[in-house]
Design a protein that fits this description.
Layout lengths: L18 E3 L9 H4 L4 H6 L2 E3 L4 E13 L1 H9 L16 E8 L6 E7 L7 E8 L7 E5 L2 E10 L2 E13 L2 E4 L8 E10 L2 E10 L3 E11 L4
Antiparallel strand pairs: 1-2, 3-4, 3-13, 4-5, 5-6, 6-7, 7-8, 8-9, 9-10, 9-11, 11-12, 12-13
Length: 221
């Protein structure tokens, strides 16, 4: 595993950024559970930017691993736009940009992972506050997953609870054999203005397929 190096310079949001109170994530949890979050995470997920504005976080990939099945899954997922990490290199920069989406009232996420040799990987997705759990993530070609959030060990945890395919007005649940398994994203605070995002995908038959973890610096506001 690479060291937990963090960037020297914190990223900043766009100039003239307008900050708004945001209860979109808070509303998905009971007040008691939300109150168990560290103050830094509470503030991070209660800060909303004006529509169309972007905040950028700069970090470093700390850990990345694939099982054989996980590596093949990541390559096959390129057919729908490459929503999964494809490289196991650590110690390389990662940049995450979050843009407020005026059309849906959600967020557009862009993740760029550098490589020491070769072209960087860019992953696009969109979070929408809708669906059976109140939060969905669209990863491309009409494919989305419903996310359930919880607080565990003072971390904010996002878990997939079902995948679907949208074709025009139709929304079709995907059978388990067409999905990668259970996806978990964990946001944990490290103190000193740094935090960790971890991604884990575990298949009920093949076990842990993919893990990626990166450490970021808090963006200035």
């Amino acid at each position: 595993m690479a060291s937990t190096r963090v960037p020297r310079f914190p990223a900043t949001p766009a100039s003239n950024t307008i900050l708004l109170d945001d209860r979109r994530f808070h509303n998905l949890l009971p007040d008691e559970e939300w109150g168990r979050l560290p103050l830094a995470i509470w503030r991070r997920f209660s800060k909303r930017f004006a529509d169309g504005e972007t905040v950028v976080y700069v970090g470093t990939v700390e850990e990345a691993s694939f099982s054989r099945a996980g590596w093949w899954l990541a390559q096959l997922a390129r057919v729908i736009g490459g929503p999964l990490p494809t490289g196991a290199e650590t110690g390389v920069p990662m940049v995450v940009a979050v843009t407020e989406d005026a059309a849906s009232g959600g967020q557009i996420w862009t993740r760029m992972c550098a490589r020491s040799n070769g072209f960087p990987q860019v992953i696009h997705s969109a979070k929408r506050f809708a669906g059976p759990t109140g939060l969905e993530e669209y990863v491309g070609y009409g494919i989305s997953m419903a996310l359930l959030i919880s607080v565990e060990h003072e971390a904010l945890v996002f878990r997939s609870v079902g995948y679907s395919l949208q074709i025009g007005p139709l929304r079709l649940p995907l059978p388990p054999w067409l999905t990668p398994g259970d996806l978990t994203v964990t946001h944990s605070d490290l103190g000193g203005g740094t935090f960790r995002f971890s991604l884990d995908i575990v298949h009920p038959r093949f076990g842990k397929l993919i893990r990626q973890s990166a450490v970021f610096m808090e963006a200035a506001s």
